[in-house]
Amino acid sequence: MNIFLLSIMDIPQQEFINGILIGAGTTTFGFVLTMVWDVWKTRREKKSLQDNLLNLLSDELEYNAIVVKKGKELVLEELKYLEEKETIVSALDIPRADFWEVFKHNYDPKFFSNEQIAIIKEIYSKIHSIAVNIESRENYRISNGAMSNFSDRMKIYNLLLLDFLAEFECLHHNFKLFKK
Fold first, then answer.
1. Closest Cα partner for 116 from 40, 34, 58?
2. Cα–Cα distances in Å, from 89 out to 130, 161, 164?
3. Angle between helices 114-143 and 98-106 in degrees, nearest 10
4. Cβ neighbours for 70, distance < 8 A, ≥ 6 positions apart
5. In whole angstroms, what is the distance from residue 165 CA to residue 129 CA?
6. Contact between 127 and 97 (Cβ < 8 Å)
7. In the predicted model, what is the mean pLDDT of residues 107-117?
8. With contact defined as beta carbons under 8 Å apart, do 108 and 45 qualify?
9. pTM of the predicted structure, to 2 decimals
10. Cα separation of 121 and 117, whole Å?
11. How confident is the model at residue 11 (pLDDT cuts 50, 70, 90)?
12. Residues 155-171, mean pLDDT to the nearest whole number
């Protein structure tokens, strides 16, 4: 211990102060670099998460676009049969809305404009309307096939559903435009 004190005592005062300042400066520089790295890494991870969310959302909407297209074709075909008081037995697929719950709790408003979020909300609102209409239509179709006004009532369900499907297609087109 005495040797250490003697060696410190032999160092000129200015060199000692310079050593402390260089050590403090190096430590501060290292701290700043670490903070900058953490901020950069966090931003990169957030951007990656938002990109992944948008890709997954896009995948679900592409699936829904296919379901809507097939549903539209079936409904148009059924309208022809209803004119002859006949019906098509195949049920319509319901579009998915599962990922909306994940997206709405995890998206960062910094990465999406209010317009983009409004389009996404409107799309999922329309998907919900389509799903409810399909369920109601299917319940009616299954339960009331023997009624005398069945064809007229199914036409009403189908025309309403066609409106919802067309609105979804328009909204989906707008979504694809802002994704680019």
1. 58
2. 19, 17, 21
3. 160
4. 93
5. 10
6. yes
7. 82
8. no
9. 0.72
10. 6
11. low
12. 93
Contacts of 117 (CB under 8 A, 6+ apart): 107, 109
Round to whole Å and give the CA distance between 35 and 47: 18
- Give yes or no for residue 147 having a pLDDT over 90: no
Stretch 130-158: mean pLDDT:
88
Q: SS3 of 1, please? A: coil
Give the 3-state DSSP-derived string for the chain, with helices as H, strands as E and coil as C: CHHHHHHHHHCCHHHHHHHHHHHHHHHHHHHHHHHHHHHHHHHHHHHHHHHHHHHHHHHHHHHHHHHHHHHHHHHHHHHHHHHCCCCCCCCCCCCCCHHHHHHHHHCCCCCCCHHHHHHHHHHHHHHHHHHHHHHHHHHHHHHCCCCCCHHHHHHHHHHHHHHHHHHHHHHHHHHHHHHC
Count of Cβ atoms closer than 10 Å to residue 30 Cβ: 10
DSSP state of 11: S
